[in-house]
Amino acid sequence: MDFELSEELQAMRQSARDFTEKEIVPHADKWDEEHYFPIEVIRQMGELGYFGTPFPEELGGSAMEDGMLAQAVLCEEIGRGSSSVRVAFNTQCLGTALSIWRHGNEEQKRKWIPDIISARKIGCFAITEPNAGSDVLALRATARPDGDGYVLNGSKIWISFASRADVAIVYAYHDRSAGSKGLSAFVVDMHSDGVSTRDLDKLGTRSSPTSEISFEDVRLPGDALLGKLGDGVKICFGSLNQTRLGCASGGVGLARACLEAAVRYCNEREQFGKPVGKFQMNQELIGQMAAQIEAARWLTYRAAWQKDRGQFGNTLETSYAKYVAAETAAFCAHQAMKILGAYGYSTEYPLARFFRDAVLYQIVEGTVNVQKMIIALDQLGYRKANR
Ligand code: GRA
User: Hey, is 9 helix, strand or coil?
Assistant: First the structure.
């Protein structure tokens, strides 16, 4: 066991930290207020290789042995600056390019991966529907086999980046009568006829567009199918198991931003003749926040480290990380708010944004309750999480 990041990863972490300070932190509040999607920053991250760490060089990646750990490290740094921008790790790597890499054929890999991980093309993945949130298999979209290809119909909701996306991984039933074996995954060109989107407003992460998608008789070529017909469940749950890592890392980043804001305030603000950090009630909050962030980060690193050893099916350990990180983000946002008081509640300072964004981590990519259920069913011996 080695608790040290490699020198290469330490350097990457520092460069992502510098990038976040320079390109994200000064603008994140304004972007959020204006619902502005900073696509140019995401393209820059793509050029810097942030989304390509686990991929081979011939596909434009950097083929790092610890490429998934690198995703966790980079995503935490970006998430510290903006929970909206960190979504890009899921749309450009963990939920899109990585699924194509793990399940696609050579032609699909060459066609899509270099453009997605460089962010020349924006990606998204579309699982959730109005009536299928936690209950994934209740989704209703269909991709009816037709000649050489398929005809896609249905609607998706809460899909990050969909309205700006060039490509989507879409989950739809090719045969509803076959139950879970009738679900398939498709790589869909979002500029196809019959695709339309509508942006949805939300409490937080407002510079990450979130949309409904409508697919109306969209003709998909035969090579849109990812893996084999019926591989949809495997690809979908496999992909969620990677995007949950992105959420966990983002949650750790956000929690850190809250801690940093609280520490700064504790040292600067004086009441009753001394800095408020001298009061034990605030020390208790700082101590709890710092310890929980450490715990969440190590769970996240462990899950990433397993994936780097080929254990992409580590649902249990990924759920531990996602669950603890989501609760830590919410906890730290709340505790920091207690410390900053009116300066936290004011929209002139970033803590109000962190507070709104923290809620997201408890909802997306499998709610906190879904993570606890996965863990509990495994513990009770009812359903093994890693399969
Ligand atoms: O027996 P069977 O043939 O029916 O197959 C079952 C099982 O073997 C079936 O799925 C199979 N399966 C798998 N197959 C291959 C399950 N896991 C795997 C796997 N890893 N590989 C049904 O399985 P089940 O265990 O009976 O599942 P369930 O009870 O239907 O559901 C379990 C559970 C609730 C945990 C699951 O559905 C789940 O994880 N739900 C949460 C969904 C979720 O995370 N949604 C997030 C959507 S994406 C998102 O939020 C992003 C938004 C923002 C953004 O775009 O960034």
Answer: helix
The distance in angstroms from the start CA to the end CA of the chain is 24
Contacts of 182 (CB under 8 A, 6+ apart): 173, 174, 175, 176, 230
Confidence at residue 351, expressed as pLDDT on a 0 to 100 scale: 98
The topology under which CATH files domain 7-120 is Butyryl-Coa Dehydrogenase, subunit A; domain 1 (1.10.540)
Q: 241 C-alpha to center of ligand 1: Å?
A: 10
Phi, psi of 270 (to 5 degrees): -115, 135
Q: Is 348 a catalytic residue?
A: no
**The CATH number fitting domain 124-230, selected from 2.40.110.10, 3.40.50.150, 2.40.10.220, 2.40.240.20:** 2.40.110.10
- What tens digit of pLDDT does each residue of 129-149 get? 999 999 999 999 999 999 999
Ligand 1, residues 98, 170, 237: which to mutate, most atoms within 8 A of Cβ?
Answer: 237
Long-range contacts for 14-22 (Cβ within 8 Å, ≥24 apart)? 15/48, 16/50, 16/73, 16/74, 16/77, 16/78, 17/77, 19/45, 19/48, 19/77, 19/78, 20/77, 20/78, 20/80, 20/81, 21/81
pLDDT at 387: 87
- Global confidence as pTM: 0.97
> What distance in Å separates the CA atoms of residue 381 and residue 40, rounded to the nearest whole number?
48
